[in-house]
Amino acid sequence: MRRQLPLAITFITAFTLAVQYFIPHRTFEILYEVSQVWLQIVGAFAMVLGIVSLWQLHWGKARGRKPGWGYSIVTLVCLTAMIVFGFTGPTKLGEVGPGEWIGPFNWSYDNVLSPLSATMFALLAYFIASAAYRAFRARTALATILLLSAVIVMLGRVPLGDVISFGLFSKVANWLLYVPNVAAKRAIVIGVGLGVAAMSLKVMLGIERSYMGGE
Amino acid sequence: MKWHEKMLNIDRRWIYLILGVAVIVPAVVSFHVPVNVTPEVRRVYDFIEDLKPGDIFYVGIDYDPASLAELHPMAYAILDQCFRKDIKPVVATLSQFGAGMAEQVLSEVAAEYGKESGIDYCYLGYKPYPAITIMLMGVDFRVPFPQDYYGTPIDSIPMMRYVHNFDDLKGVISLSAGTSSEFWIIYGYGRYFMPLALGVTGVMAADYYPYLQSGQIFGLISGIKGAAEYEALTEYKGEGLKSIPYQTTTHVVILAFIIVSNIGYFASRRSKK
Hints:
By secondary structure, chain A is mainly alpha-helical. Chain A contains 8 helices and no strands. Chain B has 2 domains: 54 residues; 199 residues, Rossmann fold (3-Layer(aba) Sandwich).
């Protein structure tokens, strides 16, 4: 029963939702709408599960003084602080009048999260520069093709390329993006799509059971 | 160490330092770089330009502060165009860190035009799980968003009274730095056939050309260059055009390092022979 019930629920849910897509009848529309609301509710429980799991993982690391335990404490302190700030102070800028204190939640968002995230992303430019210097060397024929494509697209997608080549780089870059890039991407997307469909069928029919754990 | 070996083994700290200087230069010496508008950006501009006053258009601020530099200028320029044309934007975010930024950009641009929340625009806020939220918006906006961001019930918001689902919108643009743009293609276009455009970061752009070519998205704004193109079209004085000199100097430095690296590589190959 412990195995049959989840399999039955999976099959019935997956089959019904797959079939409703092809039957334009009001009953199936209602079924679809109800299923979307259920999805949202299940999603809310998943979020609680995620928070509990995050807490357990980092609490265990901090208690056991495992490598990187200091970061775990930072994670737990920040998690707790933001939950407390969220429940106690104003969380929406619209709730705060001009010149008033925006509250710890908004302050942390503006002065901690936002600059830290932007800084992390901006640092990528430095790593990309360093990686481009080391990786883009014309060692083989394939590496040369990669190097030329990268340089042309890099120049073709910025105004500088158009200025120095009278628009030639952007035309070649567009061709690269619209023809070889699209051909390769489409092949990958179709392959992934077929793989997902096959995997979904296996899950629906109970052939693939790893989601139940242990098998 | 021979000269070509030095060219091949530049310490990464020198690379970081020179790139840092390249970022600072445009702040000290100002110069102008002309921006050519690509067809995929022009199509987004033309689509919004062709809408009539009072039409409802959905703007998704589906990114977080990490991508703010590239995507925020797009949001400003698009919302400016909407308010200038009296188009009513419905704004929501599918990124957990996007709510504050979306409110900031919306309230700033709305204030410039004297637009009122609930009458000229509606801000729905954030809901988790992008795929589910998009599907639910296709059913009825009231299901994922029973209230707007400020707690007003949707039915009490004048401009949303007759807006129920995607059928009541003229189009959607999602400014995204993650997978939500793919969910918009799969569910927003695939299921509900919404006219859809995307604004994405520069590194994501190549992934979306197949959808542009197939017509699943009608326009694509990519990276800071795309934002600058949009600002050039709308004549909005934002951060996009201002960022182009910075992008130019950093690209020149990166290209210079690639050239130096290859000269060093070929010279060392020749010396080994």
